[in-house]
Amino acid sequence: MLIKKRPSWTMGESDATPEEIYMNRRDWLRGAGFSGLGLAAAISGIGGFATSATAAIGGYPAPRNLAYRLDRDITPEEDATSYTNFYEFGSSKNITKRAQKLITDPWVVTIDGLVETELQLDAEDLIARAGGLEERLYRHRCVEAWAMAVPWSGVPLAKLVNLANPKVEAKYLRMETFFDPSIAPGQKQDWYPWPYVEGLTLDEAANELAFLATGIYGKPMPAQNGAPIRLVTPWKYGFKSVKSISRFTFTDERPVSFWEQLNAREYGFWANVNPDVPHPRWSQKTERLLGSNKNVPTQIFNGYGAEVASLYNGMFPNDGRALFH
Q: Is residue 4 part of a domain?
């Protein structure tokens, strides 16, 4: 008899209220005569964005994957969708209104670098090729010491890796967001190294927890939360989870991420959650839960150590802090 050990974080489940919203834009694209590279070329002439702000990806609510559960209540939707970082639209948390200028349908995604065949396709086609949507309950921990628990909809990042068919020499996945200062005022600030870039090792990208989210709370992803596609890596600090991804590049060189370029001492490449490694300017031992303002103890790897700790065995044996800043 096979007994499957439940992961350490499958303690109890909270319910999320779903609302079905489905808007399929591919029929419009095909009717206009665009597909694949033709679509990408057509849209690139207008800055990469179309003239409709509707959701690029449909299929909500997605079926919940019951393997992913929580030990805490789900954060109220209003809090999780209004208190968020998106420096492209400003450095405050109150960027929701400005972020609505982001047009996410159609949305061209490029897959390039060390792959057998480079691809350019619209976001909905990418997700369709990567497999059907599912919903997962994940904890999210910001480096600023606040936290939330969210029902994300999307697909495992590993499915995109398999779709891309990277070459054997590829070791990292570099992810890049959009660049359009005409609608994103933060991108006019040239002291930031735009566009926003993040990266993972291929082993991290293939881990079962790494997730490409296209929706939240049973609905398409709001612009302020990173529509139409964002990364979710729940064992890492939130700044690793790049929003509004437009390019996936497979490479043999470790990417230098956005915040690492600005201040590598405070925001390193690895950024795994650890309560015993403080940020240079504040403690990481506790976290404030959005919606309740309760402070709870922070867990190493945000509580997902059983699933990800083995990724880092033997790394930095003389500097145990390197993986956690």
A: no
Q: How far apart are the first and last CA of the chain?
A: 42
- Domain assignment present for 129: yes
- Reported confidence tier of residue 321, pLDDT bands at 50, 70, 90: confident
Beta bridge partners of 135: 64, 153
Give the domain range for residue 102: 26-324
User: Distance between CA 298 and CA 14 in Å, rounded?
Assistant: 20
Task: CATH number of the domain at 179, please.
Answer: 3.90.420.10
Token output for 25: 């834009």
Q: Per the domain annotation, does 270 fall within a domain? A: yes
**What is the torsion angle, in degrees rounded to the nearest 10, for the CA atoms of residue 214, residue 218, residue 222 and residue 228?**
20
pLDDT digits (tens, 9 = 90+) for 283-297: 999 999 999 989 999
pTM listed for this prediction: 0.85
Taking CA atoms, 18 is separated from 67, 85, 102, 135, in Å, by 18, 24, 24, 10
Residue 196, in any domain of the structure? yes
Regarding beta strands 49-52 and 105-113, do their DSSP bridges make them parallel or antiparallel, or are they unpaired? Answer: antiparallel
